[in-house]
Design a protein that fits this description.
- The chain has 326 residues and is an alpha/beta fold.
- The protein has 2 domains: 2-225, TIM Barrel (Alpha-Beta Barrel), CATH 3.20.20.210; 236-326, no CATH class.
- Helix content is 51%, strand content 13%.
- The protein has helices at residues 2-14, 18-32, 45-49, 72-76, 89-103, 116-124, 126-135, 137-161, 180-200, 217-223, 236-243, 258-261, 264-278, 298-311, and strands at residues 36-38, 53-55, 63-66, 108-114, 165-169, 204-209, 227-230, 248-253, 284-288.
- The chain has a 7-stranded parallel β-sheet with strand order 1-4-5-6-7-8-9. The protein has a two-stranded antiparallel sheet with strand order 2-3.
- The radius of gyration is 20 Å and the shape is globular.
- The N and C termini lie far apart (44 Å).
Length: 326
């Protein structure tokens, strides 16, 4: 019941109202002591503003109902959404603005959008879009380019509203869904386009890929985001060894079990393991591997933050307050 009640509150109040979106982030920051404020919502917010219709179930997060894209002509007719008017984009922009005014001089304001490949897949529908990249390539290419230009403009507005860090989630382009070769062909060019534009405007950029992303690391290194977010199934030690100091890593305590339902002791142990595996030499941000869903234990998140502050200070120390040399 706790999870259902939390999810109902999230969907009916937080996702549809800018003040509630901000208040939820403010509450999280003040209750748990994050090092930044994530001003974000559900991933379908961006596709919705481009014409995708959504259902908002009482006890769940929004999900797609009907795509606006039935043909190549529909793609040609698309126009980049107005961030001040279309869908829930104004809610996101206002939440970033409120967070920036309240906390922007204290902590990082983190926001962003969706990777062009994933956003195109969300607008079109994942199954159809995955077929498009083989049998309807002109449509797929145009839709990805549209998504990229949309994200460039969105990022500019988010930066003006006060965001310091801009994230792209592109998990539909990851190796759990498409091949590394297709990631290189279809995702990398437009990711470069967006990140280049965002960096030029002064933003810190971050890429998230769900699942085991190791087969595309060579392309991520080529992309050079400032931060690469790794899911909990990834070996953080291997990622650190591969990327070294070229890309800052972010992750990767398991949000689905450890932070959600495990014991506080296990949370502490897993948090400490992440620090031990990636902290050496800097270039590491401790976080969950992905989204923490409603219904998590508050005590676990408090333990996570406490353990991070205890073991994550440089030079890194063990539980007996002795410096640890990796």
């Amino acid at each position: 019941m706790r999870s259902r009640k939390a999810c109902r509150l999230y969907c009916t109040r937080v996702l549809l109202r800018c003040q509630k979106t901000f208040q939820s982030r403010k509450l999280g920051y003040e209750r748990f002591g994050y090092d930044g404020i994530i001003a974000y919502a559900d991933v379908y917010l961006f596709a919705q503003a481009a014409g995708l219709s959504l259902e908002f179930p009482e006890d769940g997060v929004p999900h797609p109902k009907e795509s606006p894209i039935k043909s190549l002509e529909d793609v040609d007719a698309l126009s980049i959404p107005d961030v001040q008017r279309d869908g829930r984009l104004p809610i996101l922009l206002k939440a970033v603005e409120l967070a920036s005014k309240k906390y922007g001089k204290k902590v990082a304001i983190y926001s962003g959008g969706q990777g062009p490949f994933s956003l195109a897949a969300e607008i079109r529908g994942l199954e159809r879009f995955l077929m498009d990249i083989y049998i309807n390539q002109e449509l797929a290419e145009k839709l990805i380019k549209f998504a990229a230009e949309y994200m460039v403009e969105l990022g500019e507005s988010l930066i003006k509203s006060g965001a310091h860090m801009l994230h792209l989630g592109d998990s539909f382009a990851g190796p759990e869904v498409i091949s590394p070769q297709n990631f290189s062909k279809w995702a990398i060019p437009m990711l470069k386009r967006v990140f280049h534009a965002w960096k030029k405007q002064g933003a810190i950029t971050s890429l998230h890929i769900c699942g085991n992303s190791s087969r595309i690391w060579q392309y991520v290194k080529e992309l050079k985001p400032d931060i690469f977010e790794v899911d909990h199934v990834v070996s953080l030690r291997s990622a650190k060894s591969f990327f070294e100091s070229e890309v800052c890593l972010m992750g990767n305590v398991d949000p689905s079990w450890v932070l959600h339902r495990a014991s506080m002791k296990e949370v502490e142990v897993k948090t400490r393991e992440c620090v031990a595996n990636a902290a050496e030499g800097g270039g590491y941000i401790l976080s969950s591997g992905c989204l923490i869903m409603p219904g998590f234990l508050n005590e676990n998140l408090k333990t996570f933050m406490k353990a991070g502050r205890a073991y994550g200070k440089y030079p890194v120390k063990d539980r007996n307050n002795r410096e640890t040399h990796f």
